[in-house]
Structure formats: structure tokens, C-alpha cells
Amino acid sequence: MCKVIVLDDDQIQQLILKKMMGKYGITSDTIFTDDGVNVLEFLSAHKNEKKILPELLFLDLNMPKLNGWRFLEGLKVLYPELIKPLNVYILSSSVDPKDVKRSEKYAFVKSYLIKPVTRERLSSIMENMAFV
Question: Which CATH number applies to 4-128?
Fold first, then answer.
């Protein structure tokens, strides 16, 4: 079963992703949250537990508390300690090329997606990760 974290403060985006991921039968192992600090603590606490760590993380950039860029910096420090890869997909309403370019400096960021995510794009992600 695929484990996913959706880190986004937009409740509507969370609902959209939840419904679309339901098609792939992965909603039961999906964590929806807007707290990047808690996600970093969760990943750190379970960094050696393959069965608990997620394979996929959808990350919003503009969030309260800890924004997406600060989350990525925290993950960059933690990432080498994770027992398995974590594929990060940025979700953003920003079409600024500077944001896209900035996201490319993180090797674990697989793609920069403009909200809202389409079914086709989510399907492509799931197929590439062999979840379907």
C-alpha cells in the first residue's frame, strides 16, 4: 500500500486530492496536514521504519507556520537519514519561473505542479511510481 503525505493548508485542495487518490485506493494510508513541523518530526522519528515512511509527499509552498521552502530546507538535512526515498511533488498556485527554478535545487523534488492538480497529472505520478 502506498503511503502519502499531503502537506497543504488549502482544505479544498486536500479534498480534491483525497477524492482523486481514492481512485487508486490509497486514501487510507494518506496523512493530510498543514503542519510542516509535525511532518518533519514524524519523518525523523520514523526514518528507519520502511513500513511507516511515506513514498510520496505533496507540498504546498505558501503555508502558515512553516512555509514550503523552509520545510524543504529541513527535509534536505533529514533526507540522507531516511531509510527509503521520499518523492516530493510541489503544489503551488505560483507560476513564477523563479519558484520553479528554486525547486530544482532539491534532488528529492520530482516536479513542480500548478494547482489544481488534474486527474491526468495525478494518474501519471501514480503510474510512474507503480502505484496503479
Answer: 3.40.50.2300
